[in-house]
Amino acid sequence: MNYVGIDHHRQYSHITWLDEKGEAVKSGRVANLRRELEGFLQGIGDVRAVIEAGRSGYTMVDVLADQGVETIIAHPRDVKAIAKAKVKTDQRDSYKLAHLLRTGYIPDVHKRSGENRSCQRVLRQRAFYVEKQTAVKNRLRALLAQQREEIRGEVSWVENLFTEKGMTVLKGLALPEREAKMVGALLKTYHHLEERINETNALVKELYEKLPYARLIQTVPGFGIFLSVLVAVEIEDLERFEDVSKLHAYAGVIPSTHSSGDRSYHGKIIKEGNRWLRWAANS
């Protein structure tokens, strides 16, 4: 059995190949292209690979899977805790990963399917649009708050500026020409984002119809379609959790604990785990 450690970057990866005795057979920088990877691994035989979790790491995992290579995804923080080094280079990092894989000390994380990752991207995109739309709303409110008293008075009578009634009031404000242009630009941006959100809502609805767990979660009070799909997608497979406490820890909804001697203190919830599940639980 051969072992391959991959220190992955956006444009290239540094790869170290160890044999079953731990001897380095090959090490070098490879462009993140299929033909380059195939050339590096040519004649390797039986092999297992490891790569740290990262934003674009799955692109390498998919290429390796097409070549029949089993790839483990390592937890970056735990790898650092196990094999901390004062000198850090791409070559050393890839060697470290390969060595930990060979010795059985890789702290691995759940490897998601391609379909699940695609579902995640839909949800992330909707969250992105909503975040930007909220920023536009806040900018518009801030702009209006700096206008003269008469303008502020007209706006104060509207409970929600972003309804049909609110939009009518905004369009009828007697603003100075420069200010009116800025308000108009913000409203155009708001409506553009509203269209994009509606488009992604349609994709989320498709996922809802496709995922049985999402429809089950939606029966819980407070969970709408988006949150139900989000929770179902982030969990992906309940069987990967040994018990409910493991799921709670993964979701980051357990309290922090500090113990010394016969005293224990439980504080705020931990800041680790899946931030999307934690956000859904606190929404």
Quick overview:
The chain has 283 residues and is α/β, with parallel strands linked by helices.
Structure description:
The protein is an alpha/beta fold. The chain folds into three domains: 2-103, ATPase, nucleotide binding domain (Nucleotidyltransferase, domain 5), CATH 3.30.420; 114-235, no CATH class; 241-282, no CATH class. The chain is built from twelve helices and seven strands. A five-stranded mixed β-sheet has the order 3-2-1-4-5. The protein has a two-stranded antiparallel sheet with strand order 6-7. The longest helix is centred in the last third of the chain and has 34 residues, at 177-210.
Key terms for this structure?
Nucleotidyltransferase, domain 5; 3 domains; 283 residues; 7 strands; alpha/beta
Give the fraction of residues assigned to helices: 40-55%
Which sheet architecture does the biggest sheet show? Answer: 5 strands, mixed
Strand order of the largest sheet: 3-2-1-4-5
Could you give the distance between the termini? 48 Å
* Mean pLDDT rating: 91
Number of self-contained structural domains: 3
Judged by helices, strands and strand pairing, the structural class is alpha/beta
Order of helices and strands: EEEHEHEHHHHHHHHHEEH
Radius of gyration from CA coordinates: 26 Å
Secondary structure tally: strands:
7
Low-confidence stretches: none
What proportion strand?
15-25%
3D shape: elongated
Number of helices: 12
Q: How do the strands and helices of this protein lay out in sequence?
A:
Elements: E1 2-8, E2 12-18, E3 24-31, H1 34-40, E4 47-52, H2 57-66, E5 70-74, H3 76-82, H4 90-103, H5 114-144, H6 149-156, H7 164-171, H8 177-210, H9 212-217, H10 225-235, H11 244-251, E6 255-260, E7 263-269, H12 275-282
